[in-house]
Amino acid sequence: MTTRTETQAWDGGWLREARRCPSPNFGPRPAGASIDLIVLHSISLPPGQYGGPEVEQLFTNRLDWDAHPYFQQIRGVEVSAHFFIRRNGELVQFVDADARAWHAGASCWRGRHNCNDDSVGIELEGLEGDTFEPAQYQALARLCRHLAQRYPIEHVAGHEHIAPGRKLDPGPGFDWAYLQQALAWSKKFFPPATQAQASDRTAT
Fold this sequence. Notes:
About 20% of the residues lie in helices and about 20% in strands. It has about 200 residues and is an alpha/beta fold. The longest helix is centred in the C-terminal third of the chain and has 17 residues.
């Protein structure tokens, strides 16, 4: 049963504690879609540079494609995620979680294709292979709990798991064991490939 406190955490599909930065890149979910999957990504623009406005500019179609040579590789793309967690743990929301964001692309998980249809996409400010900050794990765990209070979440996976061979994020630097311990959710929520990962963080 959803409590009043949990209901107050949301304004429709917008999480009140997140800073809103609305993206035009979204659409309706298919009729009857069950939002039961959280997909984790990593992103930084330019790659490996943190703290700037470029990720928010990308998701809101305001990125200056000529501002950095790397941007020519993604010129014209229209993408979004529901949430973005900065290195300091700040939470930004781009798309109403009831709507379909454009984060997964060609994908398949739990026997279903087109994971954008029934997932919530969360971008972590970071780089594939790099590590993430404790503040990000804390914000991510809190966000996952909020999502599970509103939606029938049963799965948490990385972009690398739902689009293997095409995507590599969030990458080997992401500590799945740390997240599992923080959430205290059953291992069945997480990809089998993450179960054998050792966690230096949880050992401290």
